[in-house]
DUF1059 domain-containing protein (Candidatus Nomurabacteria bacterium CG1_02_47_685), 66 residues
Amino acid sequence: MKKLTCKNVGVECDGVFEADTEDEVIKLAAEHAAAAHNLPKIPPYLEKKCRDFIKGIRDGEANETV
């Protein structure tokens, strides 16, 4: 599993996105960004930042925000 939160990329929001692949996480985050943050398309620099923060989830691992 992969995981990303809005807080990982510096947005004060409780959005959490989990999926099997990095691309699926980005898709979920993009849908959320459009609906919740009035960002119809994630700019390339922000997508890169998101991808940099996506982490694999292991049983019992704490997924800290940065």
User: Anything to note?
Assistant: The CA atoms of residues 44 and 53 lie 14 Å apart.
